[in-house]
Design brief:
Length: 227
């Protein structure tokens, strides 16, 4: 059964019983549009208690692909601890399927349907970071997302470029291209840093933008830091 059908059914049931619904983050294009053998989980936003978050995970089966539906209004500070919990739960399960993956569910604007962003291999760290230490041990480029107005690029030559968050892929691409020119490495490795106040929608949009970037001279590392 396609996941689209399952999600619509869930929303209908919620509507009939006046229960909570989820506003999914929107992206311009998703590379993954259909997943089979799935289990859903939901992270709800409570409009009356904006600092609260509710996780519904009772339908998760460890051997399936997990589709995590996160309300776009939640912040990373609210979301990521629950994501880490789910990752650990799956990793520690006695019943495993090495081919089963984890995805965030999104609204794909290009297809007017659901799309999915995989995060199976992402390692989240909720800790203060030392920029110089990260540059030495993790990556040749650091992309730091502070808020909706500020994204910084750091590279190993200590050059610092400021740019503004935008859905215009060309703007981000131009800054990345300039950074790559200044790097001696044949292939750049990128570590992502996100402010904990970042909304989940902004987080997904930024990740989707990077995935859409056509330059093949970099790889995005699996460690992500939430500060």
């Amino acid at each position: 059964m396609k996941y689209t059908v399952l999600f619509i059914v869930f929303l209908v049931l919620c509507s009939c019983r006046k229960e909570k619904v989820i506003e999914l983050p929107s992206i311009n294009y998703s590379q993954v549009t259909e997943i089979k053998d799935i289990s859903p989980a939901y992270l709800f936003y409570d409009i009356t208690k904006q600092d609260s978050v509710e996780l519904n995970r009772k339908n998760l089966i460890s051997t399936t692909n997990w589709l995590i539906n996160v309300d776009k209004r939640l912040t990373l500070k609210q979301v990521i601890p629950h994501i880490i919990f789910l990752q650990n739960k799956k990793a520690s399960s006695s019943h495993k399927n090495e081919n089963a993956k984890n995805y965030y569910t999104c609204n794909d604007l290009s297809r007017r349907n659901l799309g999915f962003i995989e995060f199976t291999e992402i390692n989240y760290y909720l800790e203060k970071y030392d920029l110089n230490n990260l540059k030495k041990k993790h990556a040749s480029i650091i992309l730091r997302y502070y808020d909706t107005d500020s994204i910084s690029i750091f590279n190993n030559t200590n050059n610092h470029l400021n740019l503004y968050k935008t859905t215009n892929l060309k703007t981000l691409s131009n800054h990345l291209e300039q950074t790559f020119i200044n790097l001696p490495d044949a292939k750049a490795s990128i570590t992502l840093l996100f402010n904990e106040k970042t909304s989940f929608e902004d987080y997904i949009l930024f990740k989707s933008t990077l995935k859409s970037y056509k330059n093949k001279s970099f790889e995005i590392l699996s460690d992500e830091f939430i500060y």
